[in-house]
Design goal:
Layout lengths: L3 H6 L3 E7 L4 E6 L2 H6 L5 H4 L5 E5 L4 H4 L12 E5 L5 H7 L6 E5 L2 H12 L13 H9 L8 E5 L8 H8 L4 E5 L2 H9 L2 H15 L4 H4 L3 H5 L3 H23 L5 E5 H6 L1 H12 L5 H9 L16 H15 L1 H13 L15
Parallel strand pairs: 4-6, 4-7, 5-6, 7-8
Antiparallel strand pairs: 1-2, 2-3
Helix pairs in contact: 6-7, 9-13, 10-13, 13-18, 15-16
Length: 351
C-alpha cells in the first residue's frame, strides 16, 4: 500500500480528481513521459484501465495549512484560454525538458472551479470551496523539478477561479489566449455533432458564472439553436477573459494572446511568451521547437499533425456549405449584443 505522504509528495502520482460525494482525492500513477505525451490529463488519454488510489480529504487537512498562507516558492505560470484557440499547442511548445513542464487540463482544477459554482462545503472537514484551489495547486506543484518552471494550462471552464488562483500565486505571470467568433464557430462545426455536444455541456457549466443565466430554464435552453449556444458560449468566455485581463494586465502579471497570432507567427509569439512568463528557454531551443514536428500534433485528433492549410480548406468548405446562414447567426449575435465585437482585441496584448 502506498503511503499518503508518498502520494502527496512524489511526482510519480498525479492528484487526478476530487469526488464531492465521497470527499476523497483520487491519485493516479503517472510518469513524466506520459504527462508530456497527452494533450490533456484525462484518464482516457493516459490509460483507461489504470486504477486510482483514493485518499479521504480529512487525511489532507493537516498538510494543507491555513487559507491565507501563500505556499509557493516557485509558483506556477498559467495559460488560461477560451476554447479552440491553440492553447494546447502553446502549452506543448513551452514544455521544454530541463527548463519547464506543462500540465494540460488537470481535472482537479476543474473540480475546484465547480466547487465554487456549487458553493460547496465539506461534511467531513472544516473546508469549503475556497480551499480547493489551494489544495489543487499544492498537489500539482511537485511535478516540476527544483530547477524547472511549472506551467499549468487549465481547461477553459476554470476561468471562473482565475482571481483565486492568482491570489495564491502572487506575482506569477499568466497568459490568456482567445479566438474570434468566426474561428470559434467554424472550429465547432468541423467537429460535427460531438463538437456541438461538447459546446452545450460547456455552456451549461459556464452559464453558472453569470447571474442572469444561472437560472436559465431547461425549456429556454432547448429553444436555443446549436449556433445560438455556440456563439453565446464564445461571448461569455470573452467576457470572462476580458474581466480578468482588466484586473491583472495593468500590473504586468497577465497578457492576452489572440490564438491566430500563435498559429501564423509561432517564432515571434513563442519568443514573447517565453520572455513574459520568465521561463528561460534559450533562443536556439525556441527556434528548434518551431521547426520540429513533435509539438504540432493536432490537439483534438490523436496521431494527426495539425496543418494550417488543411484547416483553412476545411473552413472554406464549411463557409461554402452554410453560406448565408453564417451571416445570419453573426447578425443575431450583434443584434442581441450590440457591444460585442466579433473580432475582439482584448486588453494587454502580448504581441
Amino acid at each position: 500500500m502506498t503511503a499518503v505522504n508518498d502520494l502527496i509528495s512524489s511526482p510519480d502520482f498525479l492528484a487526478y480528481k476530487f469526488d464531492f460525494n465521497t470527499e476523497k482525492v483520487s491519485f493516479l500513477k503517472i510518469d513524466r513521459d506520459e504527462i508530456r505525451r497527452v494533450s490533456a490529463l484525462k484518464l482516457e488519454y493516459i490509460d483507461p484501465n489504470r486504477q486510482m488510489i483514493e485518499v479521504p480529504l480529512a487525511d489532507l487537512t493537516g498538510w494543507l495549512g491555513t487559507r491565507n498562507q501563500v505556499p509557493f516558492v516557485n509558483p506556477p505560470r498559467f495559460i488560461f484560454h477560451t476554447a479552440f484557440c491553440a492553447s494546447t499547442f502553446l502549452a506543448r511548445c513551452l514544455d521544454v525538458d530541463g527548463v519547464s513542464i506543462s500540465l494540460r487540463e488537470p481535472q482537479i482544477l476543474l473540480d475546484a472551479a465547480n466547487a465554487k459554482r456549487l458553493q460547496w462545503r465539506s461534511k467531513s472537514t472544516g473546508l469549503d470551496y475556497r480551499d480547493l484551489p489551494r489544495l489543487a495547486l499544492l498537489l500539482l506543484q511537485k511535478h516540476a523539478g527544483p530547477s524547472e518552471k511549472l506551467i499549468i494550462k487549465p481547461i477553459n471552464s476554470v476561468n471562473n477561479i482565475i482571481p483565486e488562483l492568482l491570489q495564491l500565486t502572487g506575482q506569477t505571470k499568466s497568459l490568456v489566449l482567445y479566438t474570434d467568433a468566426r474561428n470559434f464557430l467554424l472550429s465547432t462545426l468541423r467537429k460535427g455533432e460531438s463538437g456541438k455536444h461538447v459546446i452545450r455541456a460547456m455552456f451549461d457549466l459556464i452559464r453558472c458564472d453569470f447571474p442572469h443565466l444561472s437560472n436559465l430554464t431547461i425549456s429556454a435552453t432547448i429553444h436555443m439553436t446549436d449556433w445560438n449556444i455556440i456563439l453565446t458560449l464564445w461571448r461569455l468566455q470573452i467576457e470572462q477573459a476580458e474581466a480578468a485581463l482588466r484586473k491583472f494586465a495593468p500590473a504586468q502579471v497577465m497578457a492576452s494572446l489572440y490564438g491566430e497570432e500563435l498559429i501564423h507567427n509561432p517564432l515571434q509569439v513563442l519568443t514573447a511568451a517565453n520572455r513574459f512568463l520568465e521561463l528561460g528557454v534559450s533562443t536556439e531551443r525556441i527556434a528548434g521547437i518551431v521547426q520540429s514536428d513533435e509539438r504540432h500534433e493536432d490537439a483534438k485528433t490523436s496521431g494527426q499533425r495539425f496543418s494550417v492549410e488543411r484547416r483553412a480548406g476545411t473552413y472554406q468548405k464549411l463557409e461554402q456549405f452554410y453560406g448565408a446562414e453564417l451571416d445570419q447567426v453573426f447578425n443575431w449575435m450583434l443584434n442581441n449584443n450590440p457591444s460585442v465585437q466579433l473580432e475582439p482585441k482584448l486588453t494587454g496584448s502580448l504581441v
